[in-house]
Amino acid sequence: MNDLVVRRYESRYGLDASPSAQHKACSQSTTTAIPNYYLGYPSSADQHSQNQPNYNLVQRDAANFNTKNSLVALIPALVTSVLLGSNCDIIGRRPLLILPFVGKIVWYSLMLIVVAHNLSDTWLLIAHAIESVFGSSGLVLLSAFSYITDCTSGSMRTRAFLLTEGITFFIRIAPAIAIGIWLRYHLYTAPLSVCLSLSVIGLLYALFIQPESIENV
């Protein structure tokens, strides 16, 4: 998400946003210049500074966007998690699993449209806000822990919690690394499409295969 935002602002200000050159000039612009000890020969840093793109505007706008994005995502997700989490003994565990997948499908669908048509940042905020209304990934984790509590006991419960936390750590780190490597050479349509497909599969599984762990629901 942050990489997409930075590239959009790079393009907006006429800077190089190609995959092969992304952040190269930014890294060079934030590096301390090497002192020129030999007055007869200009240093390479001095020569480069004449053609150095100014990334201050990009960094400022990206920081402002990330602040807004955090707010529009945090508040709806917090309200949804509190309301549904506190009533999951009444409504059951499956809604806590189903709703976030619906939000993910809406999120990735809107993201594909934004990327394809280069829509404004407002649509990114709207997409993230809608996804957060459905509870986001925090609600999935809450549902998973509720299922573990219902279906295990004793030492088996401890092992199940450890396994769930390990898997959660892995699925947060591994895809981020893989997508980061992919985006160095390619664009966003493919990873967004893969994430959308996985969300659809998850929703179908939650709807038709995953049983409810509370008998009276």
Compact overview of the structure:
The chain is mostly helical and 217 residues long. Helix content is 74%, strand content 0%.
Protein architecture, described:
This protein has 217 residues and is an all-alpha fold. It has a single domain, classed as Growth Hormone, Chain: A. The chain has helices spanning 2-12, 24-29, 44-49, 56-86, 88-91, 94-117, 121-133, 136-151, 155-183, 189-208. α4 packs parallel to α7 (121-133). The longest helix has 31 residues, at 56-86. The protein starts with a helix and ends in a 9-residue tail after the last helix. Mean pLDDT is 82; it is low at 29-52. Keywords: Membrane, Transmembrane, Transmembrane helix.
What CATH first level would be assigned? Answer: Mainly Alpha
Major sheet details: none
What fraction, in percent, of the residue positions are helical? over 70%
Give me the Rg, rounded: 23 Å
* Number of helical elements: 10
Overall body shape: elongated
Q: Write down the CATH topology.
A: Growth Hormone, Chain: A
How many domain modules?
1
- Secondary structure: number of strands: 0
Q: How would you describe the oligomerization state of the chains in this entry?
A: single chain
> Could you tell me the mean pLDDT?
82
* Derived structural class: mainly alpha
Keywords summarizing the entry:
single chain; about 220 residues; mainly alpha; about 75% helix; elongated; membrane; MFS_trans_sf; transmembrane; transmembrane helix; transmembrane transporter activity
